[in-house]
Amino acid sequence: MQRDRWEAPGRPVSAGLAALLPGGVLRTGTVYTVDKSTSLIMALLGSAAVDGAWSAVVGLPDFGAEAATGFGIDLGRLVLVPDPGDQWLAVTAALVDVLPLVVVRPQRGVGDAEASRLGARLRQTGCTLIVAGAWAQNEASLRVTATRWEGLAAGHGYLSGRDLDVAVVGRNGSAPGGARGRPVRLHLPETTSDRADGTAGRDRTGLPLGAAIRHPVAG
């Protein structure tokens, strides 16, 4: 019997994001879930689409255009559908047929049958679907467990960036190798060089939680 799944090379991402993903890439034809962090979704889109790929965001009315540009997302290659209503699944299915990266926030629970049908379309088209919430079948689940802001001092100042502690669970129920069963630290926003050449400019993976490092933040 032929396997129904192949190990596609996927899209490369920054070193910090690679530590969150099984295989270190955003695989094509698969689903990733991100819980409680629009910023992490923006970081994934900005890093994966650095080559000029088109993307779409469905059902996230709080997906701010100004914030998106700070994560390197090209608004000229972004399709926004803030309020698809009860047609969200049909809209998503249509977009995965023509775009390589699609983000959706489900308006209701999705069963195994619906997830399987959409999964088959993803494998056929090579699209990567990022779900803001729960999904029955996924390559990996990313959940932000803690956030630490930078830039504030004694109750004043500008927010310049933040550290996210992200728990990761792969499709087989275990954490990917980079996570080693503990939350991974990611600093946002990442610099342009982080996305473009894969260097770990401000990747804080492996640092003790709560460790303080001062550095300039771009964006």
List keywords for this structure.
219 residues, Rossmann fold, two-stranded antiparallel sheet, disordered N terminus
Provide a descriptive summary of the structure in words.
With 219 residues, the chain is an alpha/beta fold. The protein has a domain of 122 residues: 3-Layer(aba) Sandwich (Rossmann fold). It contains 6 helices and 10 strands, in the order βαββαβαβαβαββββα. Strands 5-4-6-7-3-8-9-10 form an 8-stranded mixed beta sheet, with helices on both faces. α3 links the parallel β4 and β5. The longest helix is centred in the middle third of the chain and has 14 residues. The termini are far apart. 38% of the residues are buried.
Gist?
With about 220 residues, this protein is of the alpha/beta class.
- Tally of strands: 10
Strand numbers in spatial order across the main sheet: 5-4-6-7-3-8-9-10
Share in β-strands: 25-35%
The name of the CATH superfamily of the domain at 11-132 reads P-loop containing nucleotide triphosphate hydrolases
Q: What level of helicity do the residues show?
A: 10-25%
| Secondary structure tally, helices | 6
Question: Tell me, what is the CATH class of the domain at 11-132?
Answer: Alpha Beta
Distance between the termini: 50 Å
Named at the architecture level, the CATH assignment of the domain at 11-132 is 3-Layer(aba) Sandwich
Largest sheet: 8 strands, mixed
Radius of gyration: 17 Å
Low-confidence blocks of residues: 1-6, 192-219
Q: Provide the succession of SSEs.
A: EHEEHEHEHEHEEEEH
The shape, in one word, is globular
Structural class: alpha/beta
CATH topology of the domain at 11-132: Rossmann fold
Q: Give the overall average pLDDT.
A: 80
